[in-house]
Structure formats: structure tokens, C-alpha cells
Amino acid sequence: MSRLIRPAIALLVLGLGACASAQPVGYQDDATDNRRPLESERDGRWSGYGISFGPYRAGQHPSGEQPSVEQLREDLHLVDPHFDLIRTYATNEISEDILRIIREDGLGLRVMLGAWLTRDHSTPNQMAGGDRLDGEEVEDDYESRFFNRQQVQRAIELANEYPDVVWAINVGNETQVYWSDHRLAMDRLIEHIKWARGHTDVPVTTADDYNFWNKPESRAVSAECDFIALHAYAMWNSQTLEDSIAWTQEQYDIVRELHGDDLPIVITEAGWGTSMVDYGLQSELIVAEAGLEPQIEFTKRFLEWAAEHEVAHFLFEAFDEPWKGGDDPKEIEKHWGLWYESREPKPAAEWLMQHSPRLDELERSGG
Fold first, then answer.
1. Is 115 in contact with 155 (CB distance < 8 Å)?
2. Residue 230 in 3-state DSSP?
3. In whole angstroms, what is the distance from residue 39 CA to residue 159 CA?
4. Phi/psi of residue 121, nearest 5 degrees
5. What is the pLDDT of residue 17?
6. Does the model's pTM come out above 0.90?
7. Which end is more exposed in the chain, N or C (fewer Cβ atoms within 10 Å of the end residue's Cβ)?
8. CA-based angle 142:89:294, to the nearest 5?
9. Burial of 124 by CB count in 10 Å (0-12 exposed, 13-18 middle, 19+ buried)?
């Protein structure tokens, strides 16, 4: 789960550097009124199988040492036979490497390209969750505002350069839900979404927790999006494994009813952790067992449900990421991967390797 991710702004801005050319001075309301369709089929079959792609290995970090091109190629070839889509979270120095490898190697993957947005303002009496008192003056954080615009602008450039690979742009991750540590004013999020839609042809959205998308005020955001990107973690929301899919279906239906049947919903994070600690927020919120067997059972049930209802999705996530979370090596944020950080498959990945629709497609084509 990505609620604890906040890249170091200054380092990432340096990482974008000269590659983020033609910076916008001000945002314009030039987005189209027509929603762009999501690519939903390939070779005559529904193609909504996706996975979140965090390629950082031991000692690597989004604002530190980066994966090499060879490591990225290994990871992409590992997931390619089993998924149609991957999701990235920020436009940084490896983003173009990922897109270029997919194109050059002729992989079947399409990318939901992320532009990370962080809080770009503060107030003298900041309230919990990022709200402000009525009439309270907003103090801009200009470094963060520049960072956010750099992120969106670079995502636009990459989408325009790699239209054959970029499936959609995701502008901001969990910037609106009440518990986020990087909440952004809604009007500023909408400006970024409009800017992306006004300068690309690919679908554009913002990803957030179900506990934002189920609120009436979220319709102001969904009105500017081509689809809703929904996070729904049964495990984090005190659900048992037995009840996990029914709970996921319930959240999906609530959001669909609020926003209308004509707006597609993609589940952009759902998964099951394989390790956790017995203290803190994890012990308070999680009632189900973390582990390899529960993960494989959830994965089977979730993929069966998603295929039956043709719900495009991104399992969370491809690989364990030891850089996340606290110092305890058992901390759950480090252990959502279907593969270990070593790239050895967990049982869920081993099962997937035998049953994925993409693998069947490659075998039929001789790939």
C-alpha cells in the first residue's frame, strides 16, 4: 500500500532536471469534454490484468540509487508473460527506460504512467489530514508546486513520445483521502488533471482510496477524469479473507452508484500482504492473517472476480520493496509482492505462472 510513500522532493526534481522541458507557466482549462476510452481488448480477449510495478531492490529507493537498465529489463520480462498492464507512481529517471524497454523488446505490456503529487501549500494552523480553518491564509510551498508541475509535464511528454506503450496517465496518488500525509487542495488536483488531458490523447485519472471516491464531493474530481482509479484493500479494512471479495465488490458498487455507470472504474490497488508486525496500526486494523497461503487464495479469488465482471485492475504489487515502511523487517509495507525482493516467486506468483491469460496468448503465438 502506498499511503506511506513520499519521495524526497529536491532529489526527484534534480532527477527530472533538463528532461522536463517546456515547463508550463500557468495552467489552462483546455481539457476536452469527451472521455477517452480505455483499451480493453487484445487479440479478441479482455485485457485488464495489471500489477503495480515498483522495481526498487535492496539498497535502492525512489530518491536514491536507481535500478539499472539491465535490472529493469529483467523485471519487465518477468511480469510480461502474465499481465497486460503495469502501473508506475512517479515520473523519474527510470520512467523512460521502462517505456523504451517495452517498445524495443516488443513486450505486450502497457503502462499506467504515474505523476506523483505532493502537498504544495501549508497554513499557520494546519489541521490533521490537511484541512484548513475557514478564512485561513494558504502559504504556498513553491518548491513543491514546481515539483508537481514537473511531474505532470514530464508524464505528458512521455505519453506523447510513447503513445504505443502508455495506456493512461495517473495524476497524483491518494492526495484526497482524509488520512493522506500529502493531501493536495482539490482545485489544484483538478488543475493538474485538466492540464494533462489538454496536452495528451491518452486517458487521464487520479488514484485514490475508496474512502474518498465514496464521498459526494469526489464527483468534482471524477467529472474531470476519463475513469476512476480506485484503491480497495480488504486486508487494511478489517476484513477476513473469506469476506474480502464481497467487501471489494461492495466498495466497487458504492462508487459506481455514486459516479454513474458511464464512468469506468479501475481497481488500481488491491492485494494481500505476506508479513506483518503485531503492534501499531497494523495490529489495530488488520484482523486477517498475513502470509503466503492467504495471499495465493486472495489472488485467485480476486482475479476470478475481476475477470468475471471485466474489472480492469492492478494487483499490489509485483515485488517486495524493503525500502518501504518502518525499520522492522516484518513490517507489512515491505511485503505485498507476488515475488520476493530477490525475484524468487512466492506461491501466488508460481500459481500465476501456470494460469495467466497472457501466458496462454504467448504460447499460442509461439512467443
1. yes
2. strand
3. 15
4. -155, 165
5. 34
6. no
7. C
8. 140
9. exposed
Cis, bond preceding 344 (omega within 30 deg of 0): no
Owner of C-alpha cell 469506468: 264
End-to-end CA distance of the chain: 33
What are the pLDDT digits (tens) for 282-333?
999 999 999 999 999 999 999 999 999 999 999 999 999 999 988 999 999 9
Stretch 250-274: mean pLDDT, rounded?
97
Mind listing the pLDDT tens digit for each residue in 237-254? 999 999 999 999 999 999
Cell numbers at residue 29, please? 482549462
CB atoms within 10 A of CB 123: 14
Kindly give, in sequence order, each residue whose CB lies less than 8 Å from that of residue 107, ignoring residues fewer than 6 positions away.
76, 77, 80, 101
| Nearest residue to 159 via CA among 99, 208, 229, 226 | 99
Q: How far apart are CA 226 and CA 39, in angstroms?
A: 12
CA distances from 193 to 87, 171, 216, 354 (A): 17, 6, 19, 39
- Residue 108 cell numbers, joined: 505486450
Q: HSE-up of 214 (CA within 13 Å, CB side)?
A: 12
Q: CB of 263 within 8 A of CB of 221?
A: no
The grid coordinates of residue 194 equal 485538466
Beta bridge partners of 112: 87, 168
CA distance 79 to 81: 6
Q: Which domains does the chain have, with CATH numbers?
A: 44-365 (3.20.20.80)
Do residues 102 and 85 make contact, with C-beta atoms less than 8 angstroms apart?
no
| Burial degree of 242 (CB within 10 A; 0-12, 13-18, 19+) | exposed
Contact in structure between 112 and 85 (CB atoms under 8 Å): yes
Report, in angstroms and rounded to the nearest whole number, the Rg of the chain calculated over CA atoms. Answer: 19
Nearest CA-CA partner of 320 in 299, 305, 334, 300: 334
Contacts of 142 (CB under 8 A, 6+ apart): none
Residue 201: closest CA among 259, 240, 162: 162
Contacts of 246 (CB under 8 A, 6+ apart): none
CA 304 to the chain's CA centroid: 21
